[in-house]
Amino acid sequence: MSAPSRPEPNYFGAGPALLPTNVLEEAAADLLNYQSLGVGVGEMSHRSSQATDIINETKENFNKILNIPDTHEVFFAQGGGTGGFAAVVYNMLASFAQKTGKKGKVDYFITGAWSQKASEEAERLGADVNIVADARKFNNGKYGVIPAKSEWKFSDPSETAYVYYCDNETVAGVEFAEVPEVPEGVELVADMSSNILSKELDVSKFGLIFGGAQKNIGIAGVSFYVIKKSLLDRLPQKEANALGIQVCPIFLDFPSIVKNNSAYNTVSILCIHIINLVLKNLLAKGGLSAQESLSKRKAQKVYSILDQNPALFNLPVDKSARSNMNIVFTINGEGNEEKFLKGSSARGLSGLKGHRSVGGIRVSNYNAVTEESIDKLIEFVKDFIKEASV
Amino acid sequence: MSAPSRPEPNYFGAGPALLPTNVLEEAAADLLNYQSLGVGVGEMSHRSSQATDIINETKENFNKILNIPDTHEVFFAQGGGTGGFAAVVYNMLASFAQKTGKKGKVDYFITGAWSQKASEEAERLGADVNIVADARKFNNGKYGVIPAKSEWKFSDPSETAYVYYCDNETVAGVEFAEVPEVPEGVELVADMSSNILSKELDVSKFGLIFGGAQKNIGIAGVSFYVIKKSLLDRLPQKEANALGIQVCPIFLDFPSIVKNNSAYNTVSILCIHIINLVLKNLLAKGGLSAQESLSKRKAQKVYSILDQNPALFNLPVDKSARSNMNIVFTINGEGNEEKFLKGSSARGLSGLKGHRSVGGIRVSNYNAVTEESIDKLIEFVKDFIKEASV
Asked: Where does the record place a coiled coil (chains A, B) (predicted)?
């Protein structure tokens, strides 16, 4: 039995994103026959000993790679990032209510499309939403900056269930350079769907980190959560509901999921196994310290060549807020963007079209995008510049 | 590039369940390189033209195989069957409220662990639950029958948002022989997680059919829904909430999902692609008419050998309610069940242990379990009987 393989792709899609070829080779073989059991990893009971081993090993590797303290717990659920937007509201409000007897306010940073959607979901679910800062107010109505700290307007800390932000915005290409400082005692919630595992992280700063898996860490069909264990102590749903908190569907109820080791309902063991393969692959390559250097170096190469040609390339994001994961730009000169996409495609470089809502070009620089791919792109950009300036 | 393969498994696990080897071979190859694009089916944008083609083709094949009328629509979502329990409540109550201005009552048949869980989720979410019939009341406190029609107690039809039942209960091994008749004008909702595609179905009888994919139709990570289109007309969530209906998280909001062709948020294109491969495989083998004959014949072979040896085997389920998908029994004589499991395992027959809550033996007879596997099992059972009666 030999696993399928492929030539190394040069693919810069924004997500679902590239995964390392060796990870997919192993996953493909395991889809047919896992550990010589005779059946595949997608066909085993999620409560079998093999599945439990996969879940436990994935959690251990998650703990190891992110250096997660004992105060925090890793778990997996369904619903993706968008499911997470809702899960955050239900669960964090009920935790705060357990501690204070109150519903609590929720504070949202809005720095791009994803944090905007998350705040809208909180509103839909009846949360009392305060916007800490909306980046558009400080950048002519467009995303592209992280508002200055002096502009942040938090709610009264004693009333605040949590502060929410999206660490990396894939559409706008905006990333927080540092974890935002929040008022003492207030829980911080981060959507890290698109930059988890790209850099080192002090998990102790967070009440909750979550994300859909389909960027740096796996494929769609599962979400990851890292929660401060004390937040699992929450008001029972009936009492929480009496305070105006919506009832959480049971499959997104954090305490139920954790109590059942992520197998309250049928979580995808294939998806968790792929996360584990990604984590093992990254640990073997030096973990997050090595990855952070690599991510920054790759991104810097792209930003650098673009910055050197300001007559041709427009980079809408403020330098202090530039994402290492999603590099967005537009190209001056009629027809130049089409020429760029066509030319890059002819060289086997794909997935470069900007998000439909903003247009232009987007270079996604996730973990599985190799430095060789970035170098090939740079070579193309150099040739493009020569031709464009003729 | 050659896909991995495997010897044909003889696996009777209850789910996540076996899939056809040729389906997994194709999926494994596509995980690395889909249609020679150079990237895999799990790495493509869920809004790419390739992903849209996969979703559309899967819907078409779903329509074809189940002969779904124009009045109904197929879509895919996250959350599994348990997510579906909640999604049903939110969406069906809001549809009924749109039609009547009222919250409505919900009627549940309880015939096993899954319909019981579904009714509990409806209760949690504040629905006004009426139990049409609880099978345990008619079978000494245990599941194992479908209550007689004369015992069914429906709510007033003008007040009823929907009647819910689980067509096949995997733990108890109970299956409805016929679609239950409900009062004129009341919408019928069916959980068909574990027996979809095992038999022909008159979809026009249903308001909604749903299920997790990981039995007959795919792998965990996606759920399927077939909804009567008129039910997509629902009261806006704020007005619905004012009537006491909980707000649906946006990623489970049926109208939003359908409007976005199942790609409102990042649905797993790999999981949908596997559904499509399963559907194509089944269509090539004669569709549901052929599958129904095969399913019944396979199940009958097992029930028959067990029925012939009543001193040894106890079949707790009433003959009229026997499942063609999950055949449950216990074995008389101390140590005989262990002997059965050990002996079958030695012959390469696996996944036969009963659910932890009921014990005994469970033979799951899903579509991907071949008649050859069933025949091997029968041969083992015959030898087991000989030895046991010595």
From this structure: none
